[in-house]
Structures are given as structure tokens and as C-alpha cells.
Amino acid sequence: MEDMTFTEFLIKTTYFVAVILFVIGLKRMSSPRTARGGVVWAGWGMVLATLVTFLYFWHDPDWTNIGLIVLGIGVGGAIAWWTGKKVAMTDMPQMIALYNGMGGGAAGAIAAVTLYKGVPIGADGEPSLTIGFLAVLGGLIGAVSFSGSLIAFAKLQGWMTKPIRFKSANQVNAALLVATLVIGLFLLGNYSTHIVLVSLFFVLALVVGVTLTNPIGGADMPVVISLYNALTGLAVAFKGFVLANEAMIIAGTVVGAAGTLLTQLMAKAMNRSLASVLFSAFGDEAVGGGEISGSMKPIEPSDAGVMMAYAERVIVVPGYGLAVAQAQHKVWELAQLLREKGVKVSFAIHPVAGRMPGHMNVLLAEAGVPYDLIFDLDEINADFEKTDVVLVIGANDVVNPVARTDPSSPIYGMPILNADKAKNVIVNKRGKGKGFSGIENHLFYLDNTRMLYGDAQAAVAELIHAVKAS
After folding, report:
1. Residues 81, 100: one domain?
2. What is the domain count for the chain?
3. Are 142 and 241 contained in the same domain?
4. Considering Cα of 416, then 420, then 421, then 427, what sign does the dihedral take?
5. Cβ-defined contacts of 129-133 (< 8 Å, 24+)
6. Whole-prediction pTM value?
7. Could you report the per-residue pLDDT of 126-149, keeping only the tens digit for each?
8. 183 part of a folded domain
9. pLDDT per residue over 294-313, tens digit each?
10. Domain end call among 31, 57, 86
């Protein structure tokens, strides 16, 4: 008995330490300077929580699946290690979406096991309505997060280029959600095993995730990824209550809260409510942006290089095109060369630049760009008017001035980087296409803007050559 008491004390203490590591890791992830260390701290917390879970079940006479558990951890760990090493930075957003979905799926699977048993049991060994309710709620959220994250992955990967949209889609989604909840409530009120109803409950929940995410456009993907991250955290917390696991409760709550705050931040950065993201289906179809006057004016790399070499101040605005071309190292080489010539170089990051929160920060950090040269929208926007040259690489909607000037534009009111207020703007694009949201960018047609066409890595290489020759 004393051994068991000590074991329980050791388990709870270890879980508490693991949770502290999770919190420290999450806190450190909030800054680019400490983000890498934050991942390591949280990783060790997960290792500790996993190891102590074996101790938790070691004295359980019904625990007979240790071989399958070890096999699952081994296979999953090997796949995660390999994909983490091999995935390109360009594909990082879809990998985040996929792994986030796996967390939701795991929470849903735990709920399924609980509900298929038919009688949710509380800590006192008696049937528990509370445990059953948390199992239903966690199963619903986890399943929606799982299937929704898979759709987000498919969109970011380019496997789904044409969203399926139809009239009354919101009403259909609402009906599916209500039907799922009704079945879940029925399961709560009837403790006999209903294999068919439990299966139908999870099928409908998975369908809700698909139908809810499918109409959402690519421009809103940063918000969607953050939202499903929050939902996965909540699902894990609910499963922690079901399993009486303190580590899952606290870690899931922390992740859910962080994901919720990040979702609000992303929505605010786009000046869009969460409801408009989920139900307005904005982001893939071509939409209006007002009449355009003027024309796009191309510039040769040699002329652009000379313009930058003799500038006093240059601001670089990176976007997804930089990620696609993997040009971050070339851009930093260009910045170093300009700094050697006495040019003051800064990098301006919009909160929703790229395909996930912090995408551009990760790319620049990978290239070795010092953190004190990287500024967010609020820190640098006032400096554009004093800037000689702004180099926009693969960014589009986050520098579109119609967000300030055209009330009819879907992005009106969205905070943007004030690149158009600089003396000169050089925009590098692969072609003349529109941005991910399908909105024509009026910046490209302004008198102070010149277009540098071509792949970002090749174009920046030519800029480097021109700066060296000037």
C-alpha cells in the first residue's frame, strides 16, 4: 500500500514537472530569440509525461496492450523524426496543420473508446454523467479538428484548389452540427451500448469538420490553423478529465488558451471576425477591389540594384513567394551587402504573411537574419515614409493600399504595411497574377512602384550582382 501511495505521489509530481516544462516551452516560443529552446523544453516535458504514463498503468491489471503502445510510439516517433528532418520550410504550414489534426484525432479516439464501452465510469466507480458529457464534447471537438485540419492540409498542399460551395451551406453545417449534438445527448441519457449511434456520432462530427473548412479560402488559412490548434487543446483537456490525467488537463488548457489568443490576433490582423472567416467563404474566388488606373511598370535587376545600393534606407517585405523560392538566404546576403555599403536595412513582417502565424519569422531566422533587424507592422509602419526603397518579395495582400482607401474591397480596414508610402517600391513577383485572396493589388500600379518579374531566388541573385557592380 505504501508503495502504491509513493507511486501515486511520484506520478502526480512528475506530471506537475512536465506541465511546468510545457508552460516554460510555450512561453519561450513566443519570441523568435528563444523559440528553438522553447520547443526543446516542451519536448522534454512530453518525454517525461510519456514515460510516467507507463508507470501510471504499470499497476493496472487490465493493462495488456503495452506492446501495441510501444509499437505505436516507435512508429509515430520515427515518422515524425523523418518528416521533421525532410520537410521543406515552404511546406511547414501544411505539416503544422497535419500534426495539429493528429492531436485532435487522438483526443477523438480516446472519446470513442470511452463511448463504445457504453457506461462512462467516474472516479468512484459509478456511472458518471459528467465523464460522459466530457467524452461527447471532447469527441466532437477532436473529430472536427481532425478532419478540418486534414482539409486545411490539402488546401495548403495544393491538393484542393477548387472549394465546393453552394447556397445554404451554413444552414447545412448548422443542421449537421445540431444532429451530432442531439445524438451525443441521447448517448448521455442512455448508458446502454449503442455502437451504431456512437459510430454515426463520430461520422457526422468528421463531416462537420470537412464541410466547415472546405469553403474557407487560402487567405484565411492562418486563422483556421490557429483555431484548430485551440480546438485540439480543448479536446485534449476534456480527455484529461475523462482519464483523470492532470498533465493532459493542464497542457490541453494551456494550448487551448494560447490557440484562442493566437486566433484572435490573426483575425484582428486581417480586420475580420472569426464568424466571417468561418462563414463568409472569402479567400479563393476572384473578388472586386475597385477600378485600377495606371499600368505595371517593369524594372531591370541592374537598375533596381543601383537604386538600392545608393539608398539611405531599404525595407524588405517578405511574403509567401520568398518561401516558395527558398530565397531567404539570398535575401540576407543582399541585406548584408547593402549594410556593408552603409545602407540601413530592415525587415517588415505582417502578422498574417505566409501561410501560418510566424511563417516569415521562421524563414528569416533560418537564414540567420538578426532579430533586431526584424520588425512587426506596428513597429515599422511609421518608417515607410522615410524609406528610399521598399523591396517586396512575394507579398501581396498585406501591402495592398485598397485596405485603407476602398470601402468596397473585402480587405477594407485590414491593417497593412504602408509600403506604398515609400519613395520607391520594387515588387518581385513570378508573374502578373493576383494574391492568394484573389484581389488585385493597387500597389503594383502606382507611379512609385516598379515590377521585378521572376523567381525570387534568381531575381535577388541578380540584385546582388548589380549591387556589387555599383
Report:
1. no
2. 3
3. yes
4. positive
5. 129/188, 130/241, 131/241, 131/242, 132/187, 132/188, 132/191, 133/188
6. 0.78
7. 556 778 888 889 999 999 999 999
8. yes
9. 788 999 999 999 999 999 99
10. 86
